[in-house]
Amino acid sequence: MHTGLNRSMLDVGIGNLTKAIEYKLQEAGGFLVKVPTKTVKPSQTCPECGHQRKKELSFRVHICSECGATDDRDVAAAKVMLSWALGTNALNRGSQISTSAPQATGGWRQVWETKRQKPTPQR
Asked: How far apart are CA 79 and CA 84, in angstroms?
């Protein structure tokens, strides 16, 4: 019973933090790209080769069993999310990911939604 209540309280807290960050980014002319972590799985993906392997939370260092890349787990996850947000493929550095439905990619949809909003006067 308490788990559900705690989870909903955490969701509200994270939601408010996300809104505050998004507001500040828009104020500065930036935008927020939300990475779908359930499908991207940044903490289980190698930022160098894209290999995915399930890891326990206790493993704090990312060591890829395929390419041997080593990094702090949080840093590796941040690199994976950045690559996703930029639309680049870890397997082919610098190339754009091809998709037949660009509106389905969270990053570009959010970019266009942000561009369609009326600009607010700068102070």
From this structure: 9
